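Researcher: Structure prediction, please.
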Amino acid sequence: MSRLALLAILTTLTLPLVIAGSAHAGTWEIDASHSSVGFKVRHLMVSWVPGTFDRVSGTVDFDPADPLSLKADVTIDAASIDTGHEKRDRHLRNEDFLDVEKFPTIRFVSRVARARPDGAVELVGDLTLLTVSREVVLLVEGPVSPVKSPWGGRKSGVSATTKFKRSDFGITWNKLMETGDLVVGDEIHVAIELELNEPKDNK
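Model: Predicted structure follows.
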């Protein structure tokens, strides 16, 4: 068999794989009705109080054939914070914490995806909260292999976790207990769950 014929056969065999790998590449829209950003923070240094931001929007770019192609631009509606306690939520929305009237959104924009030694993917980017932008690192799961939705189009999903100090963003409100401990912890743990809609060009 000639080298030309062999090359033609290999191209025929591998072309479907290339097409399959790139078919879903592009900019996926966040499905706001099936996505949320969860968080938890220490209270009285004895327990964790959880909450969510229920309104999130934006885009996630990725190519399933290249995990390090991952990019994200995520905007959170700050007023959508929900800890299951209305009085506490009103406090979190005021100027002591999120000051949502002046700063209605929280935004994360990625800069680079990188591989960890254990094979996991980290997404490095800038988190803008109030007037401050700082680098944060997300530990990412996914995006998962796309599936066909019963309502048309295809869906994917991605999860991520991170943590940061709220004081780094100028959120310093607190009260001191008799023990010398603080009422509200400084470190915020975040868990992101995003459902993604297929790029329109791929439908």
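Model: The radius of gyration is 21 Å.
Researcher: Thanks, that helps.
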